[in-house]
Amino acid sequence: MATDATGESAGTADAYAELVERFERINGVQGAAGVLGWDQQVMMPEGGTPARSKQLSVLSSLSHEMLTDDETADLLDAAAEADLDDEQAAQLREMRREFERADAVPTALVEEISETSTEALGAWEQARAEDDFEQFAPYLEKLVDLKRQYAEHIDPDRDAYEVLFEDYEPCLPLEQAEEILETLKETLVPMIDEIRASDADVTTDAFAGEFPEDGQEELSRDVLTTLGYDWERGRLDPSTHPFTSGNVYDCRVTTRYDETDPLGGLMATVHEFGHAFYNLGLPEDHFGTPLGESRDLSVHESQSRLWENHVGRSPAFWELVTPKFAEYFDSDASAREAFESANQVYEDNLIRVEADELTYHLHIVIRFEIERALISGDLDVEDVPTVWNDKYEQYLGIRPETDTEGCLQDIHWSHGNFGYFPTYSLGSVMASQLFNAAEDDIGNIYGKVREGDFEDLQTWLREEIHQHGARYETNELVREATGEDFTADYFVDYVRSKYGDLYDLEESV
Amino acid sequence: MATDATGESAGTADAYAELVERFERINGVQGAAGVLGWDQQVMMPEGGTPARSKQLSVLSSLSHEMLTDDETADLLDAAAEADLDDEQAAQLREMRREFERADAVPTALVEEISETSTEALGAWEQARAEDDFEQFAPYLEKLVDLKRQYAEHIDPDRDAYEVLFEDYEPCLPLEQAEEILETLKETLVPMIDEIRASDADVTTDAFAGEFPEDGQEELSRDVLTTLGYDWERGRLDPSTHPFTSGNVYDCRVTTRYDETDPLGGLMATVHEFGHAFYNLGLPEDHFGTPLGESRDLSVHESQSRLWENHVGRSPAFWELVTPKFAEYFDSDASAREAFESANQVYEDNLIRVEADELTYHLHIVIRFEIERALISGDLDVEDVPTVWNDKYEQYLGIRPETDTEGCLQDIHWSHGNFGYFPTYSLGSVMASQLFNAAEDDIGNIYGKVREGDFEDLQTWLREEIHQHGARYETNELVREATGEDFTADYFVDYVRSKYGDLYDLEESV
Fold it and tell me: Domain boundary residue among B49, B72, B104?
């Protein structure tokens, strides 16, 4: 009996070890695909597409096969019987989630979605160029239908949008996300109204003029070094759309340079730094396993937004950085002018990626409401442009005159990514709560920012967030880090205080 | 009966189609590994090694598993029964060769060689830095032993070195390679003696001075464009060791810049152009299959050497390029002076990679003789330094004073690459024969080179070599392209004529 029991226990422990090895192999393939993706966007000559597409599709199908193999299922069942510690249990939880998600959806459907997305991307590009939603509509309709099928394979008993949302944010209930977005809407719509009515004298043109690309690159490198980017494990390159790619050993950022918009590029650099700094702080011990991965998109975005908004858009940061502007460019803006320009609330911006920190979230709320209604069937694809424009008028007081500036502006739906947008706002909200807790623990963060001393903030984020990898689910991670449940309260306080000061708003707003 | 026969034929045709698909998948994985390798040498931050090693090792074991799978063997057997045309038969021949090679050697031995190589590389680096062969000797001994075992698994009845040689040059008999190397030795040893005794006034210092890196990069880009490099399917970057990586859609070159040696960098660029131009001319229709690959190392090296030596070291090339030197640098060398400097035979160079076009081959002959004797057991590892130095004295009239400048100079043996070196010289010899045939077909190539007109030569190489992929084996490819068997005659004529003129040699040499 004793022998049998020992034998069985050893067997289940072996199953756990085998699983870890199997997921490390899968991660090796996915990591390779990540490098290929980075290369494709940053280095690859344009002719390279046919070979690259083939390579990426082979790697994707190999990792899918390895993940959904019957043996994975057997090992997961066997390991569940093993005597696991908390960390191992968390590891197994993440493994099972990945497996179940991948296993539930037939390969044929995954391929159909992928092929339809490729066609939809082409149609979207053309529709956008020609300001003609009609051209994109049939593809959007097909993607909505395919994604409903996709959700049904995963769980036929739940709201399809809820299931889709989990692809990007698996450990935060949609209901909670919805409440937070509702709070943002209720807070920001009247606040933006009042800002528009304000006659406060906010500088808007500190970054007017020509800012040569060379200087912008030097500035980005300088700021990355100042924030604490580890160049031995990273690099900076330009790309059309800034992004971050990599792991704890090698995590690279990209940014963009527009000679008339040095702020856009610099804020992109700071934003991507936040993403990279997270990945570079993940637990090396668990490299290559689900436990060694970052938590999902809201948490990742909380890191980029914390650095972009709470650091990069603060008066203290501009006291630190304005002298660098004078060094790299012919610029005589004061720190206060730069701060104000970096935080101005735009009157008539229709484009999400060019939005300020406040209006940004109404761009998200609009997309969230529309895609939920699309997936539930409450909204027909043909009505999207009208509903889009009505909502912009209602929430932001501006109405797009073209679909190119309206519902065709973002690439996401052409990828079939329904449920992705909310994570952007959730990240901002979480960033506020985390920054507040860090300030409670550290004290006088902005005094240190002014001196270019980021060490305490770096350490706090590493210890409270990064080093845990995927050990905790989102709500637990926030609770462990801040001592409180995930809440929008700190974000509301933050924007009321910051924009109240900037625009001399009534205290009631 | 008729139905059965048809059914069987369809089955075997299916087997062929399945094989092609399987090899395309394998190629996708290997292509991905190629991109990762390029990135590692050109872009990766130094800290990235642990993740990259893991990714590469997973891809390597996956492609090995896919290749040696029982199903591959079954499909190969089934496809052999199919009614294949010549091209398909060549495809199957290449597939079978890859499979048999990979299948013959136990995975454990492959892994042991790989691990020993990693240790040996570290030991070699340290031994070389400290000029202490003793530190490297035990690793070299182990690698010799492991590689003997490796060869025995593949074919216990044949000479082990012959088997190892086939890893780099599978379709050229070693005996033939040996004869060619013997001819080189017999030709070059007395010729170099006479050059040393010559009192011809050859310019040696046309490239003395400082040549800033920026200008060298511009020059390399300019020359690549002039030679016909397709920038939409390639890129140029600096790396420690110049190399070429990629496929018909995306083939990239690297070069090196040393401010006191602009010739070294430019010749590396031209050499790598030759490799890249080959890959970029491979048949797109067969992309991803063995038939769509380049022929092996001798043929590949013939392409780089043809461009480097027959084009890049010709008087015509220097008439074309010397004005560019004046444009990018403060240089007033004449075309003739530049040509002479680029072709001078060094008196006392001990280092293979810095050798001129003549002494180069004696560096190769020495390595070939030593590694053959090591593998056969006729030479003990401990005696390598002495034998090395004796041979340098005997063939080149110079004796290394240190092992760092002697038998520790090259990295190849620390990788366990025995049998690789000969392909360098075979490539040069083949280049001469191909260039001679191209001249016969085209006429006045150097007149066109002088004008920067490379079109006819490009077309000839594409049609005679590149477009065939791996369709023909090496000897057949040479015969198809030149109408003659592979021979060293043209190389001997070429060096006698060129260096005879340059150094006023007796006609008998």
Answer: B104
With 60 as the cut, is the pLDDT of residue A509 above it? no
Q: What is the pLDDT of residues A150-164, one digit of tens each?
A: 999 999 999 999 999
Smallest Cα distance from B296 to chain A, Å: 21
Nearest to A51 among B54, B62, B250 (CB): B250
Distance from CA of B236 to the nearest CA of A (A): 11
Tally of domains in chain B: 2
Catalytic sites of B, residue numbers = 272
d(CA A123, CA A137): 9
- The minimum CA-CA distance between B28 and chain A, rounded to whole Å, is 4
Give domain status of residue B29, yes or no. yes
Q: How many whole angstroms separate alpha carbon B32 and alpha carbon B36?
A: 6
Residue B320 sits in the same domain as residue B462:
yes
> Is B301 annotated in some ligand binding site?
yes
- Residue A11: the pLDDT is 75
Q: Which residues make Cβ contacts (< 8 Å) with residue A446, sequence separation at least 6?
A: A314, A315, A316
Interface contact flag, B59 A32, Cβ < 8 Å? yes
- Residues of A at the annotated binding site for Zn(2+)? 271, 275, 301
Whether residues B96 and B238 fall in one domain: no
- Per CB-CB distance under 8 Å, the chain B contacts of A232 are 45-47
Nearest to A414, CA basis, from A129, A163, A139: A139
Residue B454 lies in a domain: yes
- How far out from the chain centre does Cα B484 lie? 23
Determine how β-strand A244-247 pairs with β-strand A250-255. Answer: antiparallel
ipTM above 0.90, yes or no: yes
Q: Tell me, yes or no, whether B337 and B475 share the same domain.
A: yes
Q: Cα–Cα distance between A206 and A41 in angstroms, integer? A: 32
- Under a CB-based contact definition with an 8 Å cutoff, are residues B51 and A247 in contact? yes
Same domain, B80 and B226: no
* Whole-angstrom distance, CA of residue A287 vs CA of residue A293: 7
Report residue A7's pLDDT band, with 50, 70 and 90 as the boundaries.
very low
* Among candidate residues B60, B87, B104, the one where a domain is terminated: B104
Question: Is residue B119, in this structure, part of any structural domain at all?
Answer: no
Residue with tokens 């790299």: A328
Q: Find the domain containing B16 and state its range.
A: 2-104
Query: Are A105 and A153 in contact, with CB atoms under 8 Å apart?
Result: yes
* B315 part of a folded domain: yes
Are the beta carbons of B227 and B280 closer than 8 angstroms?
Answer: no
